[in-house]
Structure formats: structure tokens, C-alpha cells
Design goal:
Number of helices: 17
Strand content: 5-15%
Number of strands: 9
CATH architecture: Alpha-Beta Complex
Mean pLDDT: 92
Shape: globular
Largest sheet: 6 strands, mixed
Low-confidence stretches: none
Order of helices and strands: EEHEEHHEEHEEHHHEHHHHHHHHHH
Keywords: Hydrolase
Protein name: Enoyl-CoA hydratase/isomerase family protein
Radius of gyration: 20 Å
CATH superfamily: 2-enoyl-CoA Hydratase, Chain A, domain 1
CATH class: Alpha Beta
CATH topology: 2-enoyl-CoA Hydratase, Chain A, domain 1
Distance between the termini: 28 Å
Pfam families: ECH_2
Structural class: alpha/beta
Domain Enoyl-CoA hydratase/isomerase: 13-348
Length: 364
């Protein structure tokens, strides 16, 4: 078990606490394995009737995967630890699938930063889930900023957001707040952080059959003026749907450039900084994912991530953002105009024969 994942069972609720505060609870391979082991053990344990996962501090629920680990392993010579990188993504995606089909109520408190891999362990889930946001929530799928794509099932849940909101989030990597998350269907309830101590006390004392119903008693209705922060997504919904409906990234950026609204110009400026290739790949991913099952999305993403590291775009992105911190990635290709359909298509070619795919056993 990982030193950064703490578990306990109180009042028939299984608690998982992510406790790696210096890294904003970014997931390591050991953490992925600890989460998987715990959830598998509780799955058929009659003494556990619900799962509650949260971070140890108000700064972050989970900021994603350990991207410095990705870089160190991906650039190591000789590449003796490359198997660990393969294991990480295979096991992380399998964990996302486990959570998505978990048979018990799965409650995620998305307080603070929740991005990338953190979204994967919060957004995954069926009708049994409950996703809580607070005034501290900072949510995003920012992978294009490091030359990656919205993985961990991101193709599945982003492509099912209203209109073109998922396309906007995937191509810009922009951070959204609690009101945005509720509007986009990426959260279920808003609970102020001032109410969290009372909520945790209730859970430890509550004997109600439906834990989620008890939690909802603390929720502030979406229309209530007490909900902090207006939804930028709601305010710009018509523009998002019109501007991000194209089937090529260059078409979308051309529309943004021609639109004089503040929102369009901000989105255009942001996209000039992202990886042209991975924005194009992300758009294709989202369009494909809209008609795919969870399992098929995760299998496709597992192929895609192998191509990402083979190409090297993600290593350059992490170098610029985390390692050298010069914030000047040398993207290849450097512009959207240079991205070809063949380059994009290569990211969707099969890496393994069907019978040998590491996620071949996923169903649903």
C-alpha cells in the first residue's frame, strides 16, 4: 500500500484519503495500486456500503498523474524503467474502469485542484456516484498544455458534456469553477467548505440507507445566489457551441480569430500556446469517443498514450512546464497549419493485436 493513500472504515463507509500534499496529491503508480487494491477489497465487503474519497488538504483533491515521473522514465537512458510507465497507464485506466462500474455509492469530494488523473477518479462512475464541488474547486483537463490529450476516460466524459463544452475544455485546457462544473454536468452538488466539518460528522453518525441523500442535505441549489462565482460556460454557451463545432482544430482557431468577442479572443490566445498536434488529436479523440463505450474509450486512449511518448511531444511539454520551467515548448509541428491528417491518424493506429491489448478484458 502507498504511504500517500490512507484508508479506514467508519459507520459502514469506506474512506480514502489522498495524502501527498507537496505534489497536490498527484497519482503515482503506488497510489494507483493502493486505490485499486482498496476498492477491490471493499467491492464485496458487506461492512462497506459506500466509498468516500477526498484529499488531505483544501488545496487539492488530485492534480493529476505524476508528470515528472513520466519525464524521468521517458527520458532515462537506458530505458530500464520504461515498463513502469507502461504499467502506470494500464493500471490507471483499469482503475478508472473499476470506479466507473463500481457497485456501491462512490462519493468524490473535489475540493481544491482536480485535474487530469484526479478527474479520472472523480468523473468515473455510474448512477451510484456523487461528485461534490466547493468554492475552492479548480477543475480542468489541461493535457494539451503538456503535449498530451485528455485521457483517464476524458474522451468519454468530455464528449458527453452539453453542446461543445467538452471540446472547449479539451482544446484549451482551461480551468473552470464549481458553477461551471455543475453547469457542464461534471459535478452533482455544491457544498461550501464551511459545511464540510458538519458533513463529515454526519457521515460518521448517520445510519440512513442512502448516504448520498444525506449528503445532499448540505448542498446549495445551483440557482441559489449563495453559489459563488458565475458560470463562464453558461454565459458563453452559445459562442462555445458555435465556435467549437468544427471538425478540425485549425477551423476552430480560424473561427475564434475572426470573432471579436472577449471570450473568443481569450480562447484563441490560449490555444496559440498549446500543442498544435495534440489539439488536433484531442479533437479527433472527442469526436470518436462520443459514440464509444467507456471500455472502448479507455482502450483507444491506451493506444494513444503509447503514440504520445513515441512521438515525444509530451516529454517536450513536461520539460518546458515542469523540468526547465521556461514555458517555451518547442512543439512539433510548430503550427496547426503544419499538422497533417496522417499525423493525427497515426495516434489512433492499433499498438497491440486485439487479443494482446493490455485492457482487452474491460467490458461495458
Amino acid at each position: 500500500m502507498s504511504e500517500f493513500v490512507h484508508t479506514s472504515v467508519k459507520n459502514n463507509i469506506g474512506y480514502i484519503t489522498l495524502d501527498r500534499p507537496k505534489a497536490l496529491n498527484s497519482l503515482s503508480l503506488d497510489m494507483v495500486r493502493a486505490l485499486t487494491t482498496t476498492l477491490l477489497a471493499w467491492q464485496d465487503d458487506q461492512s462497506v456500503r459506500a466509498v468516500f474519497i477526498h484529499g488531505s488538504s483544501e488545496k487539492a483533491f488530485c492534480a493529476g498523474g505524476d508528470i515528472r515521473f513520466f519525464y524521468d522514465v521517458g527520458t532515462a537512458t537506458p530505458k530500464g524503467d520504461s515498463a513502469l510507465l507502461e504499467d502506470f497507464f494500464t493500471e490507471e485506466y483499469a482503475l478508472n474502469h473499476l470506479i466507473h462500474f463500481y457497485p456501491k455509492p462512490y462519493i468524490a469530494l473535489m475540493n481544491g485542484v482536480v485535474m487530469g488523473g484526479g478527474m479520472g477518479i472523480a468523473q468515473a462512475g455510474n448512477d451510484c456516484r456523487l461528485r461534490i464541488v466547493t468554492e475552492r474547486t479548480k477543475m480542468a483537463m489541461p493535457e494539451v498544455n503538456i503535449g498530451l490529450f485528455p485521457d483517464v476516460g476524458g474522451g468519454y466524459f468530455l464528449s458527453r458534456a452539453p453542446g461543445q463544452i467538452g471540446t472547449y475544455m479539451g482544446l484549451t485546457g482551461e480551468i473552470i469553477n464549481a458553477a461551471d462544473a455543475l453547469y457542464a454536468g461534471l459535478a452533482d452538488v455544491f457544498i461550501p467548505t464551511s459545511e464540510l466539518p458538519a458533513l463529515m460528522h454526519l457521515l460518521e453518525q448517520n445510519t440512513a440507507t442512502d448516504v448520498r441523500a444525506a449528503i445532499r442535505e448540505f448542498a446549495v441549489p445551483f440557482a441559489d445566489q449563495a453559489l459563488p462565482g458565475n458560470s463562464k460556460l453558461a454565459a458563453n454557451r452559445s459562442g462555445i457551441d458555435a465556435l467549437f463545432s468544427g471538425n478540425s482544430a485549425i477551423e476552430i482557431t480560424n473561427h475564434l480569430q475572426q470573432d471579436t468577442s472577449e471570450f473568443a479572443q481569450q480562447a484563441f490566445a490560449i490555444m496559440q500556446k498549446r500543442s498544435p498536434l495534440l489539439m488536433s488529436v484531442t479533437l479527433e479523440q472527442l469526436r470518436r469517443s462520443a459514440s464509444m463505450t467507456v471500455s472502448d474509450c479507455l482502450r483507444m486512449e491506451r493506444n494513444m498514450v503509447r503514440h504520445c511518448f513515441k512521438h515525444g511531444e509530451v516529454l517536450e511539454g513536461v520539460r518546458a512546464l515542469v523540468v526547465d520551467k521556461d514555458n517555451t515548448p518547442r512543439w512539433s509541428p510548430a503550427t496547426l497549419a503544419e499538422v497533417t491528417t496522417e499525423q493525427v491518424a497515426n495516434f489512433f493506429t492499433e499498438v497491440w493485436p486485439t487479443h494482446a491489448h493490455p485492457l482487452r478484458f474491460l467490458q461495458g
